[in-house]
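Please decode residue identities from the backbone states below.
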């Protein structure tokens, strides 16, 4: 009898223990056949499933390696926020969102400025959500109600930080500093890659922990000011730099000219170099031209002459494009001040699918049309232009970027080019040699070797 009572007591104790454990925990642990207990994502997947935030994909599977769509991501966030679906049904204005399970959640997120579309009044519900998009959405959700701490050092140390889109920099700074995202073992974030369902479950579990901490540490006195911000400070930010080949000219006294006809051979070769595959072919073309024009020397003998004609040549120029960007905002009601981190830190315009470059034509040097005469061709001289129309200096132009335009929002970032184009060079004869020792730019004083 005693043994029966002991067995019954043990059985009742087991029943009591089981009763305090949520049955959903057993369902989550046992129902997903593709989520083993030793997987790094086992705990977050179990947590998200047992709380009803995420469900399986059918057939007893969670599909941890599948990507997550934008519609799925917003739906999970809406479930965590506990929104009333009925309040937002049939209110979504995106033209590519169907009246299905995700529609009220997308409508809620859009109405509260938590998400943006992808342009052309489309949300892209079936597009996979990237890591930086996930960071922006969660950041937008939290910053409405909480003061978030943003530290750039974690993002600055990421080896692929340059891949973060400009519109996601602030959110990614917050996400990395809050340990919501820290990258792989090397710190690589892969901001524009898709996030798997296992990764999304992990991110959301950490997000709920962050939200709980923020709520527990929220000041007792609510913020009374409904801030209205205006830009009160800007600073010059380097958008990007590029090195280009450009034309410059010098008002040179020493010009390599033909003994027979006074033709500017050096200038002709510069103007026509791109028409031939080698310097040998270019020299042969010069000889042929001498025969065609009747030059007594066939353009083979040269000397220096003081004819004051400009000499044009190629130089490498670095263009630095800068823009005035907001760096500080002040509330017009309470004078609170905040940094505009998202617009201040722009390292590059890297997403060519979002930003379009608009260029303008810039004049490098005007044409000069002094009439050259082939004085050796005949007794009276013959205008060179009637025989060789290429020896007149062409008008040189070059394109530079005037502004970038966002193809989705049509926001424009106007930029100015601050690098020197080296428009004019002068020779330095300080050594007393017959020719110049070097040439220097009259604008920036850059020095290059002699042009001859």
């Amino acid at each position: 009898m005693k043994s029966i009572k002991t067995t019954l007591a043990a059985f009742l104790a087991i029943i009591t223990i089981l009763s305090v454990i949520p049955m959903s925990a057993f369902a989550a642990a046992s129902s997903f056949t593709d989520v083993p207990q030793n997987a790094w994502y086992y705990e977050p997947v179990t947590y998200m499933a047992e709380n009803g935030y995420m469900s399986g994909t059918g057939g007893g599977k969670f599909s941890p390696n599948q990507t997550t769509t934008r519609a799925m991501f917003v739906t999970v966030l809406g479930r965590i926020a506990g929104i009333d679906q009925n309040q937002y049904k049939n209110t979504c204005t995106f033209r590519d969102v169907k009246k299905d399970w995700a529609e009220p959640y997308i409508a809620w997120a859009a109405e509260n400025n938590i998400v943006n579309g992808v342009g052309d009044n489309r949300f892209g519900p079936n597009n996979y959500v990237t890591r930086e998009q996930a960071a922006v959405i969660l950041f937008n959700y939290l910053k409405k109600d909480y003061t978030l701490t943003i530290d750039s050092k974690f993002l600055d140390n990421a080896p692929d930080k340059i891949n973060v889109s400009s519109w996601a920099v602030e959110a990614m700074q917050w996400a990395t500093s809050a340990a919501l995202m820290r990258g792989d073992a090397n710190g690589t974030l892969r901001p524009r890659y898709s996030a798997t369902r296992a990764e999304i479950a992990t991110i959301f579990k950490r997000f709920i922990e962050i939200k709980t901490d923020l709520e527990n540490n929220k000041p007792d006195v609510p913020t009374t000011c409904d801030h209205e911000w205006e830009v009160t400070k800007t600073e010059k930010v380097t958008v990007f730099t590029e090195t280009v080949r450009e034309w410059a000219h010098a008002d040179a006294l020493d010009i390599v000219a033909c003994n027979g006809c006074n033709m500017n051979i050096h200038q002709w070769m510069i103007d026509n170099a791109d028409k031939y595959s080698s310097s040998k072919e270019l020299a042969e073309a010069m000889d042929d031209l001498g025969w065609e024009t009747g030059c007594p020397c066939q353009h083979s003998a040269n000397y220096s002459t003081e004819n004051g004609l400009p000499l044009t040549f190629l130089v490498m120029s670095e263009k630095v494009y800068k823009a005035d960007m907001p760096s500080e905002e002040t509330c017009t009601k309470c004078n609170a001040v905040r940094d505009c981190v998202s617009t201040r830190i722009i390292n590059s315009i890297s997403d060519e699918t979002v930003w379009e470059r608009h260029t303008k034509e810039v004049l490098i040097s005007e044409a000069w049309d002094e009439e050259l005469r082939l004085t050796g061709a005949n007794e009276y001289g013959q205008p060179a232009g009637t025989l060789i129309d290429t020896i007149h200096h062409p008008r040189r132009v070059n394109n530079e970027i005037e502004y970038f335009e966002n193809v989705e929002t049509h926001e424009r970032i106007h930029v100015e080019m601050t690098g020197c184009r080296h428009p004019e060079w002068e020779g330095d004869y300080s050594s007393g040699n017959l020719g110049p020792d070097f040439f220097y730019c009259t604008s920036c004083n850059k020095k290059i070797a002699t042009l001859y």
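Observation: The CA atoms of residues 108 and 360 lie 43 Å apart.
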